[in-house]
Amino acid sequence: MHNPQSVIIGSRQSKLATWQADYVAAQLRTLYPGLTVTIRFFITHGDRVLDKSLPEIGGKGVFTAELEAALHMGEIDIAVHSLKDLPTESHPAFVIGAVPLRASPYDVLISRSGQTLANLPNGASIGTSSLRRAAQIKAVRPDVHIISLRGNVPTRIEKALNAASPYDAIVLAQAGLERLDMIQNVVEVLSPTVMLPAPAQGALGIQCRVADSRVRGLLAALDHAETHAAVDAERAFLAALDSGCRLPVAALAYIDNNTLHLTGRVASLNGATVITVEGTTARNPGNGEMLGLQLASQASAQGADQLLDAIRKQVNA
Known about the structure:
This protein is an alpha/beta fold. The chain has helices spanning 15-31, 45-48, 65-72, 131-140, 153-161, 174-179, 213-219, 225-241, 287-301, 304-316, and strands at residues 6-12, 36-42, 78-82, 94-98, 107-111, 125-127, 145-147, 169-173, 188-189, 204-209, 249-256, 259-267, 274-282. It has a five-stranded mixed sheet with strand order 2-1-3-10-4, with helices on both faces. The protein starts with 5 loop residues before the first strand and ends with a helix.
């Protein structure tokens, strides 16, 4: 049994994951000065296998399964995730106890030449491990070549800037670069009309056990209600279409004057087919998830299910 005045946080050990865990630890220490907070690091399947694309190594839970196993066994009290990595299908014993204020949800382009996506030369090579990013890039630049890019954020940037690398440009999440003070490398913040983000991109998900009322009480003060409502809507759209399998499903929600706005998108791998749906709802409990489901249904009616089924077959071939 843990000391009731202590909390053990579980985290991946990349620089970005460490930043995230340190951030949550600092928030808890500030809120509860008598609380002892420690961090335990884990190496996940997604961290170990770097020579294959994410869909090839399993997609769902590749960055979260080890943390959830430790949470289930009581080895840790809290698991800190990049919420976009957390599958929408959750074990009933777990709950997202808090979603802090979101950083930028957008994607950015880094290019060695300093050129924007529109100005890259014909046939340029762009690095990304994300089918969502690849599909949306191909939608606006069908001439470019997509090359798989794995590794942590500093490694990816090093590859992008190395004159001997095969990448003319790479695409990353803006939030990670801001958190690691590497934003100076960004050439372009990609508009959501071009590159709609992954559901919950830029947000942290602080996971705990449903039955752990003590920890749930501690985490409540870290929750940012508007961010939580927005990512719930985005993840509902994802869950209805893909269940977190890392296919080209994108979504972004925001709240303005108590109205929740949600945009969802599904694209074919070659970018030739792009389905975008939009809607609004009053910001009330449960409305965001309902809107996510409604927009997923609209996307399905426009052919999203068949498109995603075809992509699953391509990825698993």
